[in-house]
């Protein structure tokens, strides 16, 4: 069976997380991804957070499946020549170096266009044009500057970052969409183009509902679904941290379940969706709330949300999170157990769909990874292990037309 991006060749000049997540997705869709790494050292993540001495870290292996790796010193003249050949042969260059690094290497947009006018040059940067465009950025900086941190956490605590890598992997996803869109447009124009996904922009895109709330707050001075409202607290000028409140029109909260005293994840997310209010009241034994004017309508419930959730919690605490999930789903009440990473890793249905995959690696042995979360019916994903450093240098250079002698000379010069 053919793959969706078969025939597309990617010059993968990415490192750390944001760029590699993007090129990994493209590889899963069938692109030939050639990862160009620094001679001798490679992507810094190969050695970061190691759990097995001398084996590529899980950080690296889990972000670089289905790629080929070549080492190349792109600061030496003969290394630049190899890069030029790669630029001529590839469809897309993806990079996430610090701002200006590619220019300093001598590969400006103009130069790349000269070499290959069809080349799509896709970049992750911390910020778009503006006061911070020259800054280096890591995940949590993006979460803080993109609006996620100021709106995450509890009202009486500091701003919080989330465990979801929305700055890195979130931006990689945005970039991947930009790349396939540019490839599609190139079909009609024959031209390449620049694609930029700034981490601040990607995080802000994911925080869209909070900019919605900023404007609601400015217009009305109050947001009734926020916990501050039922707590009787004043709103300030900016969107406050909403704890575990739902970001949508149906109120929700995290509630304790049986075992919460010892299990940090014995909780369930409970959504008091309006259409199933009657069912909720019946399940928790509060049928009088169905007709009581203080509880019967969503609007009447808003100032009482805190005490309503406390009452629902009295019920959830008598059930395990999985028992509560089963009972509530019988009545179509939207809810979700708080799953630990251990529970997710062991979940058979995620293995069956390929969302969690066991991969074998020649140095580290078997490990678990997250497979392709996007399923195409006509382009299935086979997850293959990440490459060793420079594993494909000779193979790729030979494909580019370099003779065995020329390859040996480059190795002698320590360019590869
Ligand atoms: N051969 C020779 N030199 C190479 C090379 C190669 N194959 N690959 C990279 N280099 C050079 C670069 O040209 C650069 O040199 P100069 O500083 O002389 O221009 C140098 O290696 C270091 O690149 P860098 O500045 O990108 O790396 P860093 O570790 O200092 O910074 C990071 C890392 C992530 C902060 C920075 O790359 C960045 O801000 N990237 C954009 C935002 C981003 O993607 N952040 C997400 C990171 S994931 O959390």
TrEMBL record:
One of its GO terms (biological process) is oxalate catabolic process. It comes from the Bacteria. Keywords: Transferase. GO terms for molecular function: formyl-CoA transferase activity. Pfam families: CoA_transf_3. InterPro entries: CoA-transferase_III_domain (IPR050483), CoA-Trfase_fam_III (IPR003673), CoA-Trfase_III_dom3_sf (IPR044855), CoA-Trfase_III_dom_1_sf (IPR023606), Formyl_CoA_transfer (IPR017659). Substrate binds at residues 248-250. Its EC number is 2.8.3.16. Pathway: Metabolic intermediate degradation; oxalate degradation; CO(2) and formate from oxalate: step 1/2. CoA binds at residues 17-18, 72-75, 96-98, 104, 136-139. The active site is at 168 (nucleophile). It catalyses: formyl-CoA + oxalate = oxalyl-CoA + formate. Belongs to the CoA-transferase III family. Frc subfamily. Homodimer. NCBIfam families: oxalate_frc, PRK05398.1. Involved in the catabolism of oxalate and in the adapatation to low pH via the induction of the oxalate-dependent acid tolerance response (ATR). Catalyzes the transfer of the CoA moiety from formyl-CoA to oxalate. This is Formyl-CoA:oxalate CoA-transferase. It comes from Noviherbaspirillum pedocola. The gene is frc.
């Amino acid at each position: 069976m053919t793959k969706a991006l078969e025939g597309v060749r990617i010059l993968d000049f990415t490192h750390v997380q944001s760029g590699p997540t993007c090129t990994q997705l493209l590889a899963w869709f069938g692109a030939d991804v050639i990862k160009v790494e620094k001679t001798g050292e490679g992507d810094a993540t190969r050695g970061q957070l190691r759990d097995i001495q001398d084996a590529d870290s899980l950080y690296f292996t889990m972000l670089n499946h289905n790629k080929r790796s070549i080492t190349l010193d792109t600061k030496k003249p003969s290394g630049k020549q190899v890069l030029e050949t790669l630029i001529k042969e590839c469809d897309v260059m993806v990079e996430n170096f610090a701002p200006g690094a590619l220019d300093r290497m001598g590969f400006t947009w103009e130069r790349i266009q000269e070499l290959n006018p069809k080349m799509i040059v896709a970049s992750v940067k911390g910020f778009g044009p503006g006061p911070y465009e020259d800054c280096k950025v890591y995940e949590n900086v993006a979460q803080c500057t993109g609006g996620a941190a100021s709106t995450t956490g509890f009202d009486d605590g500091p701003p919080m970052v989330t465990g979801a890598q929305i700055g890195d992997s979130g931006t990689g996803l945005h970039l991947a969409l930009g790349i396939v869109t540019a490839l599609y447009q190139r079909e009609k124009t024959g031209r390449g183009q620049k694609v930029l996904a700034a981490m601040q922009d990607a995080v802000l895109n994911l925080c869209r509902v909070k900019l919605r709330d900023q404007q609601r707050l400015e217009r009305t001075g109050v947001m009734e679904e926020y916990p501050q409202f039922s707590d009787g607290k004043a709103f300030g000028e900016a969107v406050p941290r909403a704890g575990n409140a739902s970001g949508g029109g149906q109120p929700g909260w995290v509630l304790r379940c049986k075992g919460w005293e010892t299990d940090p994840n014995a909780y369930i997310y409970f959504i008091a969706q309006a259409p199933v209010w009657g069912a909720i009241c019946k399940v928790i034994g509060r049928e009088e709330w169905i007709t009581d004017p203080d509880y019967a309508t969503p609007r009447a419930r808003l100032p009482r949300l805190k005490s309503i959730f406390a009452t629902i919690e009295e019920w959830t605490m008598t059930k395990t999170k999985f028992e509560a999930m089963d009972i509530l789903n019988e009545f179509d009440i939207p809810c979700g157990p708080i799953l630990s990473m251990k529970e997710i890793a062991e979940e058979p249905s995620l293995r069956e769909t390929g969302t969690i995959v066991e991969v074998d690696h020649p140095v580290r042995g078997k490990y678990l990874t997250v497979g392709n979360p996007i399923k195409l019916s006509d382009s299935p994903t086979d997850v293959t292990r990440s490459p060793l450093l420079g594993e494909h240098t000779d193979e790729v250079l030979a494909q580019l037309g370099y003779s065995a002698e020329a390859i040996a000379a480059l190795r002698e010069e320590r360019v590869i």
